[in-house]
Hints:
Blueprint: E1 3-11, E2 20-28, E3 31-35, E4 47-50, E5 54-58, E6 60-65, H1 74-79, H2 82-98, E7 101-106, H3 112-119, E8 127-130, H4 166-179, E9 185-188, H5 207-219, E10 224-228, H6 231-240, E11 244-247, H7 253-261, E12 265-267, H8 270-279, H9 288-311, E13 315-316, H10 332-339, H11 344-350, H12 353-358, E14 376-380, E15 396-401, E16 404-408
Parallel strand pairs: 1-4, 1-5, 6-7, 7-8, 9-10, 10-11, 11-12, 12-13
Antiparallel strand pairs: 1-2, 2-3, 5-14, 14-15, 15-16
The structure holds zinc ion.
Amino acid sequence: MSSLFIKNVNILNPFSDEILDERNVFIKGNKIESVGVNETTLVGSYKVIDGQDAFLLPGFIDSHAHIMANGFHKAETMKNPLALHFYRALDNMKATLNAGVTSIRDCGLADIGVKMAQERGMLRSPRLNISVQPLSITGGHFDFHLNSGFDMEIRYPGFPSGVCDGVEGVLKKTRQVIRAQADFIKIMASGGVLSAYSSPENPQFNSKELAAIVNEAKANDLNVVAHCHSLKGMNNCIKAGVKSIEHGTFIDRKTAQAIAKKRIYLTPTLVVHHTLIEEGFPSWDNFAKERLKKLEEVVKIQKENISIAYEEGVRFLMGSDCGVIDHGRNLGELKYLVDIGMEPIEAIEAGTIRGARFFKQDDRLGSIEEGKLADLIMVKGNPVDDISILADNDNIKKVVLDGKLVKDKLI
Ligand SMILES: [Zn+2]
């Protein structure tokens, strides 16, 4: 059993912006054995890490990423052999760990085989909570048909297609996704900013379909997470009982109040849109020009609306939508959460313990406490003073995942 002793480190937990300075942390196997221990009491062999001037935080939980995706490039899906789809994800996983993210709520495409490989230590990846395949209506945000009539949805045994319609259809699809071992049900409840044939303003799935999905998920003790820009769509989702709304672009004050009251989470994924505007759309995108115009409008509206939602007491989760943008940009989201009104420590909370609570994993993840799993990052600089420190992966000096040092740079 490997052991790590991190000495003289400043601990920053998501519960308070007060730094616990010059603490010692002992990690035995994959667990945090003790915090504040004196080295002289330790027995056995262990690796020592000097944490002088560094800050130790829990590993981050990105509540919206697509570890298997690299820009949802339809022409690539058409050309690439299926095996490449999997092997290419290894770099995505590495980039995500390198950024200090040790858990992901995968909002579509990672399957049970990928999760099993992670759990068995066959590949180096953040922990995965998976939705397998998002549910989408015909012609909706995750219907990958081209105008040519060809379907670019990735398909293989054990990985269900996501398109479904009508109460019977969505019920069966929900059951298929549950059979495929989903940890939560992801649905597309509006069009997307980047989807060519559907509008983000319009809802997708009707109220009866939404109710059927949520009831079936609940019967299996699973939460429903809804991609939704549309105001009408969000209100449909609230009524149906979804647990988390993604993007939330056109949210208004009244809807925000309802979301806050029902304790529904909002994952605004602000970094994805900013990054696409700042760095441009991928060169393969034929619609880049039209989409950029649409996106610039959306970003402006979203910032105002999400700020209102924050004022109304909505609880946010940190999610980056990496997979649409490059993997490893995950913690860029924190800065935008601070921009809409959060204190840095609350943005950190949204990216750690809250993400763990969503899956009732807060007894073992999301903070630095004795007995919890050793998912930790060591950072140069105090993120409470400047949250953007965390967006620069060069400042993430060390990453510990399940007790193992998976990034080890000099402080
Ligand atoms: Zn997404």
